[in-house]
Amino acid sequence: MDRDGDIPSGYQRERHLMTTPLRIVLPGLGAVSTTLMAGVMLSRKGLSRPIGAVTEYGDVDGTPIRDLVTSLDDIRFAAWDPFGEDALTVARNSNVLSDADLAPIADELAAVTPMTAAFDERWVQALEGVTHVKTGTWMEQAEELIEDIDAFRAAGERVVMVWCGSTEAYRPPSAAHFSLADFERALKEHDPTIAPSQVYAYAALRAGIPYANGAPNISVDIPALLELAERQSVPICGKDFKTGQTLIKTVLAPALRARKLGIRGWFSTNILGNRDGLVLDHPDNFRSKEVTKLGVLEELLEPESQPDLYGNIDHAVRINYYPPRGDEKEGWDNIDLFGWLDYPMQIKVNFLCRDSILAAPIVLDLARLLDLAARHGEAGPQDWLGFYFKSPMERSDGHIEHDLFRQETILLEKIRSFMVSTA
Hints:
Elements: H1 10-18, E1 22-27, H2 31-44, H3 54-57, E2 59-60, E3 63-64, E4 75-80, H4 87-94, H5 99-102, H6 106-110, H7 138-153, E5 158-163, H8 180-188, H9 196-206, E6 211-213, H10 223-232, E7 235-238, H11 245-258, E8 262-272, H12 275-280, H13 283-301, H14 307-310, E9 314-321, E10 330-338, E11 344-352, H15 355-375, E12 380-381, H16 404-421
Helix pairs in contact: 2-4, 2-15, 7-8, 7-9, 8-10, 9-10, 11-13
C-alpha cells in the first residue's frame, strides 16, 4: 500500500485506476459516434463482438492489451452536437446498424442526449437547420465546454475527448494560431480564423483531458495548442482516422517500394452517402480531406531516395457524394506501375467498406490508449498512435511514419514500455 494506505502502487495502482469509469466525450453525435456506442453496449451484453479494436484483440508478448486498458464495462459516453437528437434517433437515421441490433440497447442509446455544440456554419456550410448550439464568444463557449467536462468528473470519472464531428473547411493557420497568448486573445475576440474543433481542443487541454482529432481539421495541430498541451501535461494525437482507402494505400505502397517496382500514377476515388459525404461535397471541406490523403504517398515512397521509381507520380484523390450509398462507402484505386525493362502493369482495388464500422473501433482504441498514456504521465503529441491516422503528428525526429507495419511495431513497442513501467 502507499504510505497513506489509500491506493496500491505500481501495477496494482494501475488496476485500481482502470476500474474507475472512463468517459469518452465526443464532439459530433453522428454515425461514427453512435456506432461506437452501440458496439460497446452490445459487446458488454455478449450480443456482439468488438472486432477491429486492437485494444480488444491485440497482445504484446502474449499479454492481451485489453488487460492494460479500461474494460468495456467501465466505459461511459457523452457528446456534443449541433442537432439535438438522442443517440438512438441518430443511430436509426444513420442506417449503419439494423433495427435488430439496436433493439436490445434502445433505452441505453436513447439516454445519451447531446449537449449544445460549439459551431460555426462558415466551417461546415453543408449542414442546415442547426439550432442546438452555444452562443457567445469562442472563449465563452470554451468555458461552457469545460463546465460540461467538469460535470462528468464530479463522479470521479476519467475523461478523454475524441473529435468525431464533421470535416471543417480548409484554412491555413493564421497569426492567431502561433502562440497561446495570441490564441486566447483571438478566442475572446471571436476571431473568425479559429475553427470550432480548435475550441473543443482548447477546452479539453484546459480541462486537463487527452484529445484525439479524428478529422482532417488542423484542430490541435497548431503551435498554440501544442504549447498548451505541454504546459498542461496532456497527451494529444491526430489527425484523420485511417479507415478504408488510405488503410489499403499504406499496405500496398510499402509492398511496391520493398520490391522496387516503379509507380507512374495512383488514382483514388470514393462514393459516400452519409453526412460526412454531404459535408465533403463542398470544395472547402474536401480540400481538408485531400491534403491528408495526398500526403501519404510522398512520405511512404520517399521519392528523393528513388527518383527513377517514384519521382514523377500523378496522384489524384476524389470523393463523390452519392446519397443512395449511405454509410456503405466504396473506394476504387487504380495504380499504374512499371517493372523490369519499364514494362507497364496495373493494380485495381475495389474496397466496398462501411465507414462507421471501420472508424468505431479506432475511436475506442484511441480513447483507451490515450487514457493509458495519461496514466503514465505522457504529454504532448503521441506519435506512436500514428497507426490510426492518415496524417499522423510528426515524430520527435521530424519524420512522419506512414507504413502501417512500421506503425504497428512502434505502437506495440510503446505499449510494451508501459507494461515494463508498471511491472
